[in-house]
Amino acid sequence: MASNNNKLPNNLPQLQNLIKRDAASYEEEFERQLSLYTATKTIFEQNPTAFNEQLYELVMFLAQVSHCYTSHLSEFPDELIGLLKRHGSVLHADMLMGFVKSLVLLRNKNLLPPTTLLILFFQLLRCSVKNLRKFLQQHIITDIKNINAKSKNMKLNKELQNFMHEMLKDKHAVAAKMSLDIMIELYRKRVWNDAKTVNIISTACFSKVTKIMVAAIQFFIGKDEEEEEDDSDSDSDAGEMPSLKRAMLAKKVNKKTNKKMQQINKVKATIKKQKKKLNSKSIYDFSALHLVHDPQDLAEKLYKRLEKMNERFEVKLMTLNFISRLIGVHQLYLPNFYPLVQRFLFPHQREATKVMAYAAQAAHPLVPPDDLEPVVRTLANNFVTERCANEVMAMGLNAIRALCARNPHAMNEDLLQDLAQYKSHKDKGVMMAARSLISLFREKNPQLLARKDRGAPTEHSVEQQLVGFGQNTASSYISGAEVLSLTTKEGDPGESSDDEWINVSPSDSEDADDSKEEEESGDENEDRSKGEKLWSQKEAVQEVMKMTPEERVDRASEVLSTRLLTDADFERIAAVHAAKQVEKYGANKKRKRERLDPNTEQDLNREIVSLKSIEMVYKKRRHDKEARLESVKGGREGRENYSSRKGRMNPLASTTNTEKSKGKTFMMIKHKVKKKQKDSFRVKQMKLRNALLKQRNVK
Question: Which DSSP symbol is given to 433?
Fold first, then answer.
């Protein structure tokens, strides 16, 4: 036992283990190590640039057992902090990492206040050791996240935010950049997602260091959807939405096979994916752009810097994107921005589609038409001309449509009617883009179109009033709410899922049928006593279509004044809107015009213009030999080896004569092959002559 005790001073891991088990029994050994640490530290401070292995091990040992002897180590954290503050810039990399890890251990044991340690770590970001900077960054983010896990520590957050605001102005570019990265990461983790954090980050947009400025701008503009999603399978899903009911009906009627089940599962997956895509919120909803305190001042300062900027074109493009989003989201007025964008609107310009998207983003209903008309004219003159390629023309028309969707007053009658002539263009992409522009103005302002392009008026278009520039309209009702005045059944047949079945015993089913009949009879008696009629969902929509506009307004106003709307009510209102968009006004005709694509409607109502809406070029399907071979190879995927399915079921059976003939020499079977060969025209001619001569001789 005595020999083991003599080895303890030289075996710190063993002593550390014993102290954690029974601290009182080894207090004397601990005090020896503490006195040794004090002496070693004094020697180390005389030459702090060298690596002292003994001090490194003692510091780690004391940090591990600090919770066992808190009274003895009350000054230990302050001593380490003092060493780092005095010699942090000249310390050896390993010594620096050891002191930092020891402080982290003390912080995890709640022996060190968070403010003191975090501020020290921010100052240590100026060090030249890359691994240490990453370690400090990770600990700062984790520690602040843990502090605010249960409840927000507003006092600590405010103090640290003020300190980080000063760090962004630090002359040390690396420390300032890492401070910015920490704030951005805390915002994305929803730890510091308040307006103060956003506005502190906005000050970094004017940094003289390009990396800091780019990081701040990238935080506000985020990543485009094209960079985040792989839309390689979009063409396959762009067709008609499959019907689950149709697939389930085929499952019931047809024979159940593995192939049928695979098709049904594929239909289910496609429907689920499309529903998720339609119901998913935009990635820019409640973004940092909405939390900027003074967006007008920020946009003006960024524009002034953009005019004098000597950075790469990619940096200029990012700044242009940020300014356009500020203008579009906050509906700012920056008249000098639009002539600047016009300078980049050329087909040969790099990233021309992005510039077109930024021009559309900067358009909103409050921009004067005089500022936007030159932009539309530039797009038409530079992109929508016969001297350009068909893809360029289609993208130009799509850009004009995206801009006019946000401010239709930017378009004049003559230009629109000229662009509408491309609806009969020989290229499908140009034709579809022109028809999309016509469809937009059929809804926004059909008076600008030629009479033949306006189309038949629908119930929806008649209800909408043309709003002039700068005009605000306030309505006392919600269009479509008149359907809520009609009492509908709780559930319509056909709306239930085909996969959900309930199995009950015969006795239970009889009892359930009896109770159901009693409830239905009771409900019918109540409805008859009230004088109300129960409508199905389809019948209710048809009844709304029969109402006059005055009746619809009266009923919708009455409904909104007497009840609060629920999610189910809004679904019924949306169904009426869909019916109004396809129902022709003043006539009950069977032929109905299709409504706009839901994805297109969703894109037009977004704050940010997607590149897909501009680069959406339709092309004819290729019918050359290479395309046909690709489709054939695609159909063979997942199949067995491509070969004839005819063959013997038993591989041990005897061979046929045909199979035997394949192994014979040609001389043995040439007489058979000769019989199978077709006669030439000359041989047929001789045979016919001989046959005729033979018939004549017979006669």
Answer: H
Q: CA dist 320 to 306, 365, 613, Å?
A: 8, 20, 19
Per-residue confidence at 257, pLDDT binned at 50, 70, 90? low
Q: Using an 8 Å Cβ cutoff, are 58 and 44 in contact?
A: no
Mean pLDDT throughout 313-322? Answer: 93
Would residue 628 be called left, alpha or beta, if left means φ above 0 and alpha means ψ between -120 and 50 degrees?
alpha
Pick the closest to residue 228 from 283, 168, 302 (CA basis). Answer: 283
Same domain? 437 vs 550: no
Tens of pLDDT, residues 645-656? 666 667 788 888
Which of 455, 484, 507 delimits the end of a domain?
455
Instruction: Based on the fold, state whether residues 66 and 199 are members of the same structural domain.
Output: yes
Dihedral-angle region of residue 311 (phi above 0 means left; psi in -120 to 50 means alpha; beta otherwise): beta
Q: What is the DSSP letter of 616?
A: -
Length of the chain: 699
Cα gap 608→290, rounded to integer Å: 13
Q: Which domain holds residue 558?
A: 458-464+531-592
Which tokens is 356 given?
Answer: 């077109």
For residue 134, is it left (φ>0), alpha (ψ between -120 and 50) or beta?
alpha
**Nearest Cα to 35, choosing from 53, 15, 9?**
9
The residue from 225, 249, 280 where one domain ends is: 225
Task: Give yes or no for a contact between 164 and 183, defined as CB atoms under 8 angstroms apart.
Answer: yes
Rg (CA), the chain: 39
Query: What's the CATH number where 196 sits?
Result: 1.25.10
Q: How far is CA 359 from CA 379, 385, 402, 619, in A?
A: 10, 19, 9, 26
Number of domains in the chain: 3
Sign of CA dihedral 229, 234, 238, 242: negative
CA atoms within a 13 Å half-sphere pointing along the CA-CB vector of 686: 4
pLDDT digits (tens, 9 = 90+) for 517-538: 445 545 444 444 445 677 777 6
Cα separation, 95 vs 36, whole angstroms:
17
Poorest-pLDDT segment among 530-534, 583-587, 592-596, 695-699: 592-596
Phi, psi of 488 (to 5 degrees): -110, 160
Q: Taking phi first (over 0 means left), then psi (-120 to 50 degrees means alpha), and beta for anything else, what does residue 409 get?
A: alpha
In a domain? residue 198:
yes
Q: Which pLDDT tens digit goes with each residue over 170-225?
A: 888 888 999 999 999 999 988 988 899 999 999 999 999 999 999 999 999 886 54
Q: Which two tokens stand for residue 498?
A: 């085909």
Which pTM does this prediction carry? 0.67
For 86, phi then psi, to 5°, come to -80, -40
Least confident range of 136-150, 375-389, 464-478: 464-478
- The distance between the two most distant Cα atoms of the chain, rounded to a whole number of Å, is 142
Residue 318 shares a structural domain with residue 413: yes
Q: Give CA–CA dist 194/215, Å, rounded.
A: 19
Whether residue 596 contacts residue 439, with contact meaning beta carbons closer than 8 Å, is answered with yes
Q: Do both 77 and 219 map to the same domain?
A: yes
Question: What is the rounded (10 degree) CA torsion for 144, 146, 151, 155?
Answer: -30
- Compute how many other C-beta atoms are within 10 angstroms of the C-beta atom of residue 554: 15
Closest CA to 367 of 452, 227, 453, 470: 470
Which of helix, strand or coil describes residue 699?
coil
Both 203 and 73 in a single domain?
Answer: yes
Rounded Cα gap, residues 435 and 415, in angstroms: 15
Handedness of CA 480, 482, 485, 487 (dihedral sign): negative
Going by C-alpha positions, the residue among 615, 601, 609 that lies closest to residue 329 is: 609
For residues 170 and 179, give the distance between their C-alpha atoms in angstroms, rounded to a whole number: 10
Q: Give Cα 363 to chain centroid, integer Å.
A: 23
CA distances from 108 to 66, 70, 111, 186, 333 (A): 11, 14, 8, 20, 51
